[in-house]
């Protein structure tokens, strides 16, 4: 479950949503933006489709015309510009690398689990537990670094006021990190030569 949620979160671009005031340009439409680790999207929404009590444009799941482009952090090294604000590419690249390394550790952990089930070698439970626990920690660190990159983006320019909120891809990543850490700890307990409860509470010998 943790692996599936991580792949879903890493591969989607709904990590954060940036919403300017819906009447900022006094038009019938407004522009919202959302992006993830690999690409960013802008979406044109009709103001009359937005909740009247909502001050900002959005949410991005409303019907509208989308335009998505991949970031050039990993090719030409260019920063992206959204609403006159510039991304901090070093933080974005760091978040992406942490997520990729986390996926690599998950793959290693899955191989160890497969070896344990097919060959019945309990030795592979320990490296599997280490891989899954570290992957959970790294994927949570990826979210923290990504959030710092969002804050750096917002602080780069103040010409356009923006409301930002983390989206469902981050929720998937957060749940995945918690599941992977708990799963890694449980695997480590299974890999112990005897149960920790037996060490703390040894069985009493019956008197003859």
From TrEMBL:
Membrane topology term: Multi-pass membrane protein
Transmembrane helix among keywords: yes
Top-level taxon of the source organism: Eukaryota
Keyword set, alphabetical order: Membrane, Transmembrane, Transmembrane helix
GO molecular function, one term: calcium channel regulator activity
Entry's localization field: Membrane
Name of this chain's protein: Calcium channel, voltage-dependent, gamma subunit 6a
């Amino acid at each position: 479950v943790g692996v599936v949620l991580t792949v879903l979160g890493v591969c989607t671009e709904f990590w954060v949503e940036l919403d300017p005031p819906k009447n900022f340009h006094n038009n019938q439409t407004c522009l919202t933006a959302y992006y993830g680790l690999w690409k960013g999207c802008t979406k044109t929404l009709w103001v009359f489709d937005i909740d009247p009590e909502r001050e900002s444009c959005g949410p991005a799941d409303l019907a509208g015309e989308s335009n998505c482009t991949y970031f050039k952090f990993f090719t030409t090294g260019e920063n992206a510009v959204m609403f006159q604000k510039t991304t901090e590419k070093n933080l974005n690249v760091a978040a992406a690398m942490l997520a990729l390394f986390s996926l690599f550790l998950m793959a290693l952990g899955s191989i160890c689990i497969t070896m344990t089930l097919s060959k019945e070698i309990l030795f592979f439970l320990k490296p599997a537990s280490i891989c899954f626990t570290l992957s959970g920690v790294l994927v949570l660190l990826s979210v923290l670094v990504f959030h710092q990159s969002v804050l750096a983006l917002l602080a780069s320019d103040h010409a356009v006021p923006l409301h930002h909120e983390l989206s469902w891809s981050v929720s998937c990543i957060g749940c995945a990190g918690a599941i992977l850490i708990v799963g890694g700890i449980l695997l480590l307990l299974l890999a112990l030569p005897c149960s920790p409860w037996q060490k703390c509470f040894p069985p009493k010998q019956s008197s003859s």
